Amino acid sequence: xxxxxxxxxxxxxxxxxxxxxxxxxxxxxxxxxxxxxxxxxxxxxxxxxxxxxxxxxxxxxxxxxxxxxxxxxxxxxxxxxxxxxxxxxxxxxxxxxxxxxxxxxxxxxxxxxxxxxxxxxxxxxxxxxxxxxxxxxxxxxxxxxxxxxxxxxxxxxxxxxxxxxxxxxxxxxxxxxxxxxxxxxxxxxxxxxxxxxxxxxxxxxxxxxxxxxxxxxxxxxxxxxxxxxxxxxxxxxxxxxxxxxxxxxxxxxxxxxxxxxxxxxxxxxxxxxxxxxxxxxxxxxxxxxxxxxxxxx
Length: 297
Fold this sequence. Notes:
Layout: H1 2-34, E1 36-39, E2 43-47, H2 51-57, H3 62-97, H4 101-113, H5 119-130, H6 136-143, H7 159-185, H8 189-197, H9 202-230, H10 234-239, H11 251-261, H12 265-296
Antiparallel strand pairs: 1-2
Helix pairs in contact: 1-12, 2-12, 3-7, 3-9, 3-11, 4-7, 7-9, 9-12, 11-12
C-alpha cells in the first residue's frame, strides 16, 4: 500500500511543482503587485492598498479610460467571433460527418491545417489580402467590376472588425471543429438508422440525437472560445496595431501599454486581475445558465 502511495505521489509531483512555479506563485505575486506602487525601473515602492483599482474603476484618469475602452473592444471581438467559431465549427463537423469515409481524412486535414499556422503568418497573409491600397481582395473585386473604389478593410471601421473576425475564424475554427468531430463519432449510428426509419429528417436528428449527444462538448467549446477571445492579442497587434485610433485595441494591449509605455506595473497588474475576474464571472454565469436549462428539462 505504501509503495502504491509513493508511486502515486511521484506521478502527481511534477504537476504540483509546475503548477506552483508557473501559475500559483505568479498569480499571488500579481495580486501583491496590484496593491503596490510598482514600476519596471524603480521596482516596488510600497503598499498602496486599493488605490490602483480605484484609479482604474472610479477616477477620471487615463487608466480608467484605457481600461473601459479595452474592455469594450474586447467584448466587441468576443461577440463578433464566438458565434462563428462555435456554430461554424459545428456546421463543418456535421458536414464532415456526412462525407464518405475515404475523403473524411483529407477534408479534416484541410480544415485543421490553418490552426497549425502561427499568428504572425496569419496576420501577414491577411494584411496582404485585405489592405486598402493594393490589397489582393480589393484588386480582385475592382477587376471583376464588383466595386468602383477600394474598400478600407484595414483602415476604417467597421471594415477593420470584419478583417479581424475573418482572420480569426480562418485561423482557429479548425480546432473547435476537431472537438465536435470527435464528439459526433461517439454517437451510436444505430440511433440515426432508427430515427431515419421513423421518418426523422436532419433537423429532428439534430435536436433529439446530435445535440444531446454532444452538449457537454458544445458547452466546453463555447466556454473555451469565449476565454480565448477575451485573451486576443496577436491579431490586433500585428494586423492593426490597435487602430484606427484605438478602436481595435483589446484589454491585453491596454495592459501591455500601461506596463511598458507608462511604466506602471502596479496598475497593469490590477487591470490583469480585473480582467481575470470578468472572465471567471462569464464562465460561472455560463455554467449556471446551462445547469438551469438542464434542470428545467
